[in-house]
Each structure stands twice: as C-alpha cells, then as structure tokens.
Amino acid sequence: MLINVPERVVEDALRGMAAAHPELTVDVANRVVVRRDAPVANKVGLVSGGGSGHEPLHGGFVGPGMLDAACPGEVFTSPVPDQMLRAAAAVDSGEGVLFVVKNYTGDVLNFEMAAELAAEEGIRVETVVVRDDVALPAGEGAGRRGTGGTLFVERLAGAVAEAGAPLERVTEVAHRVADACRSFGVALAPCSTPARGGPTFDLPEGELELGIGIHGEPGRERRGMMTSGEIADATVDALVGDLRPDDPVLVLVNGMGATPLLELYGYASEVSRALAERSVVPARMLVGDYVTSLDMAGCSVTLCPVDEELLRLWETPVRTAALRWGA
Amino acid sequence: MLINVPERVVEDALRGMAAAHPELTVDVANRVVVRRDAPVANKVGLVSGGGSGHEPLHGGFVGPGMLDAACPGEVFTSPVPDQMLRAAAAVDSGEGVLFVVKNYTGDVLNFEMAAELAAEEGIRVETVVVRDDVALPAGEGAGRRGTGGTLFVERLAGAVAEAGAPLERVTEVAHRVADACRSFGVALAPCSTPARGGPTFDLPEGELELGIGIHGEPGRERRGMMTSGEIADATVDALVGDLRPDDPVLVLVNGMGATPLLELYGYASEVSRALAERSVVPARMLVGDYVTSLDMAGCSVTLCPVDEELLRLWETPVRTAALRWGA
User: Fold this and answer.
1) What 3-state class would DSSP assign to A44?
2) What is the CATH number assigned to the segment(s) A6-180+315-325?
3) Optimal mutation site among B192, B261, B267, B287, interface A, most CBs of chain A within 10 A
4) Are strands A318-319 and A297-305 parallel, antiparallel or unpaired?
5) Are residues A295 and B259, on separate chains, in Cβ contact within 8 Å?
6) Is the distance from CB of B50 to CB of B109 less than 8 angstroms?
7) Which residues 101-140 of B have a C-beta within 8 angstroms of A?
8) Complex ipTM above 0.90?
9) Which parts of chain B have pLDDT scores under 50?
10) Contact check, Cβ <8 Å, A13/B269
C-alpha cells in the first residue's frame, strides 16, 4: 500500500488535499474540509461526511454547487459529532444547514447528535438520510445502505442551495432525490484496508458478488464470473423495478476503485444497452470512480429519475475537485 | 475482469464513451474520437493516440482547450496510420495539425507514416514526441518513454491552439513543454491485460519497482516495500535533477489505476513535502488517475516547469471528459 502508517492515512490524505486544492480550507487536525468562501451569505449550508475510503466522496464534492463541508472519519468508520458540529458552524450563514447522511448506524447516530448540539448553538439543521442500495430488502434491520445515490443528493440539493433556496426547499429537493435514487453494486475482487493490510472479505478468483456494499458487506448472491453484458443485465433488472418507462434518468456508472476506466466505459455501453432494452432513457450518464471502496474491483450503477426541474439543476455549474462543469 | 471478450474491449469502451459524451463524435468502427465541433475554423488541430489501457489518456482529453481527436489502439498496442490520417482529416481546418506522440517505437513509426499520408492529402502536419520518463538514461536504445508529461503537452499546446495560434507557434509550445517535463513511476503491483487474463510481470507482494513504465516495462530497481514518504523522496530525487530552484512547476501526482484516491492524496502530501525540502515550488498540483496502466497499483509524478506564459495557458478553460475547468 502507498501509505506511511495505517494510523495516519486520513491525516496524510487531508494534507494532500490542502496541497492540491487551495480553493478548500482543510482543517487537518479537526478533519473538516470546507469551501474557502464559507459561510456564503444568504445560502443554506450543505454538510456531509462518513468513513474514509470512498474518495472522492465526500471531500472531492466540496465546492460551489455541491457541498459546503465534508467530515471524513477513519477508514470505513463514522466521523464524530464534533467534526459535524464544527462543519455546521463553519458553513452556517444564518440560513441553516442540511446534513446529508448515508444510512449506516454510526453515521446516523453521530449526525443526529451533531444536529442536537448544533440546535443548542442556534443553528437550524435538517437531515436527509440516503438509502439507495436496492441489494437488500428495504424493511429489514438497519434498512438499505447509502451508496452512489449520495452523489445525486449532494449535487442536486447543492445546486438548489447555490441558487439561494431556503432550507425547507433544499431539504425537500434532497428528500425527493434520495427517495428516487436506486443503486446496485458488484464486486469482482475485495478491497484491502490499511489497518488489516489484506482483503476485507474472501472472494475466490473467478467469482463475483452481486449486490455488494461499499465496505465489502455481503451481497445478494455469489456467482461464477459473468460477462460485462450479463452483469449489466442483472444490475439493471435489480434497478428498474417500479421505474416508469420514458422518464428521464440520470445514470452513474461508478467504479469501485481498481476497475480500469477502459473496462468501466465498456460496462457503461452495456448498461446503456440494457437500459434501452427496458425503455429507460438516460438523460445524462456519468462514468468514473465517484463512490469507491478503496481498491475494490467492481462497479455500481445508480439511477436517479428526474423531472425537468431536477435535470435543469443538474446542469447548473458545479466546481469541486471531482465534479466540475460550467462557469 | 469487467469485460465481454478480450477482442472487443476497445470497441466496447468506445461505445460507452459515445453513450456518456454527446459532446464527442465517436467513430467506433474506425476508432477515432473527435470533438463534435471539429474542424474548428482557423484553429490548428491537435491529434494524439496510442495503445489503450492508459485511460483517460487520450480520449478523455478530447475537447475545447486540449485535443481535437484521439486514436486508441488495441491494449498496449499502437494505433494504425489509417486512424491517425482519419483523425487529421477530421480536425484540419486548413491551419494544419500537430501530432502528439509518446515515444514508443510503434507509435513513432505509425505517426510518421500517417504524417506522410496526410501531407499527400495536403494537410500540413507537425509532430512532437514526448520522452519524459527519467527512469532510464536518455541516450540508450529507443530513448526515454513517454508517460505523464503527455498530459501537459496536450493541455498547453491545446490551450495555445484554442487561442488561435498558428501551427509553428503551437509546435514550439509543444516542444518546449515536452522538453521540460520529467516523470518517474513506481509500481506496487502489476497490471493484468484482458488478453493475458493475468499479471503482465511478476512482482512479489511486499516488493515494489522504482522507475516502472506504463506498460509494466522493467524499472530501475526492485526493493522491499517503502513508506509513501520514502517513495516520494526517491521519486523527487530522480526528478529534480537540473531543475532551477524557485522555478514554478506544475505537478501531476498520478495514480496508475488501482491505487485508492485516499492513498494518492496521502502520497501527494509527501510529494509536496519532498519538493518543498528541495526548494521546488508547485504552482499547481493535479492529483488523480490521468495516465494509467489498467489496474496497476502504483503512482507516478510528473514535473512540468513553467514560465508565466505557460502558467497562464494552463489556467485557460478546458472542457474534456477527464480535465475540465473554467467556462
């Protein structure tokens, strides 16, 4: 691994972000990444965070048109309420703050606690929890995991916040997007965490796991190797569900970390074909490593059905380390 | 691997590019990727290409402010002259075309042949060969390999071409940048090509190879695992050479494909420290997977010393799949 010592991985990465991105304020000691011009007057602040190891999520999504701040935890471990509170205080212009939280027990609890602490300091906080992973049934245990859909929530809520919408409206957009998104992931090889120094789960060569989470949580089914086309069919079948045909859809074809971009674009062509065969119309398709799982080999697809308004918001300028267009 | 069959990997990827990037014209059958508005009136055309497996290079760099067209070969195999000729014809507005060629025997020969064919069709062609890899001595065999420096040549020559400079001037900038760039790469684990289905070279776990090429060509030295800081010191020592201290430098901290972005940012912080200790001033630092080697684990660093003019060109708008800012 390209590291110094496992204990310093997150700190080292934050130092690197500071070196590469003068447009961000990186508080290495307290582990908070904030857009440099925060708090932006008359703008709702967007804060997210979660365990490290999913980069560019969330720090790579901090900037105009997306997040105001991100709080990275240790690898695959929730950040602590103090980080979130600092982030909220740094970005609150008086218009309030929206927390975007992936649905994992630690993250949900810690963001809840941070929201209470922020309220005590007079910061209005709303929270949206993202549960887009359709691999597991919705009603069981802690519920569905938050994965690639987080990108769409952060981007679309970020866009409407940047346009000056009040907290209620930003929250409404975030909930609408979170409810609409659905994701499904496949692992071809496990990832290795710095602390373990080896694979987080066992996946024999020549097999793959359908419905995998972004921390190597078990999936729906283990199978012998499939072609890219077969994986796309299985994935799209798991995703289309109650989707109304001909609704425009934003599509994320996401690499988990170690999948070559050459292969990921090939997979995107199969996803595109599989969607077309089911009368789903990709309005925009984003291909790349956006919500990763360290060096896991594999891919996920997220569908985000949109109306005209959301599609227009998607197109507004965004300027972050990992997602950037317009202005 | 996330593929259908090895023989169709490049074709599938091009289909995916077409699906994801309506701003590009992708000729899948002839394997040419062209910016949709080509030829741009009164603008010199920039064409590059090379073996596939290094994505986003070169197709991901096609767009305003960078390349006009890219020709992908088979994995780790030069494209053929016919592709380059088609690309030249598609982008020539009458102002001529610059070929940006990485220094590998096949690429150099095929681009030479394409330049002759283009001349016969009345297209003025100039060529710049990039030989930025300092791992091997400059004077031996086929000379130094072209690697990460290609990004800077394509970007800076692309910027001056976009501004309307004539072919002589675009060529001069390209040569100046190509001469100035120097790169050094390190592999922590080999890559696997679709055709082989397994590793391209043998690198025992717990060892790394310093001075590796982007096709797994042997490096300068094999060693036991080093920390990220030690790798940065060895890399920067290999790079600074005759660099004048206090010259501003563009820095690329490049992932080879399977290195987690979390680790790459940590490495960027060590590169930044190592440069500072040697009085080198990074004017801008780019961190990410830009010139890859399929799923190789590892990293490279490219330094591109710049003057005020080149720094200004770097900052002008660019709008490609992989590099994008401004406008």
Assistant:
1) coil
2) 3.40.50.10440
3) B261
4) unpaired
5) yes
6) no
7) none
8) yes
9) none
10) yes
**Which of A86-90, A132-136, B21-25, B67-71 is predicted least confidently?**
A132-136
According to CATH, the topology of domain B11-180 is Rossmann fold (3.40.50)
Which range is least confidently modeled, A176-190, A191-205, B55-69, B167-181? A191-205
Give contacts of A263 with chain B, Cβ < 8 Å.
1-3, 9, 13
Instruction: Sort out which chain A residues have CB atoms less than 8 A from B295's CB and list them.
Output: 258-260, 297
A175 has catalytic annotation: no
Looking at this protein, which amino acid is placed at residue A46? L
Residue B10 and residue B50 in contact, taking contact as beta carbons nearer than 8 Å: no
Q: Which two tokens stand for residue B69?
A: 């067209």
CATH 3.30.1180.20 domain residues, chain A: 182-314
Average pLDDT over chain A, rounded to whole?
95
Determine which helix (DSSP H) or strand (DSSP E) holds A305, and give its type and residue range. Answer: strand A297-305
User: What is the CATH code for B182-314?
Assistant: 3.30.1180.20
| Consecutive H or E run containing A197 | none
Does residue A89 sit in helix, strand or coil? helix
Cα separation of B165 and B294, whole Å? 35
Name residue, tokens 């789903």.
Answer: A280
Q: Do A258 and B262 touch (CB under 8 A)?
A: no
Is the previous residue joined to B282 through a cis bond, with omega within 30 degrees of 0? Answer: no
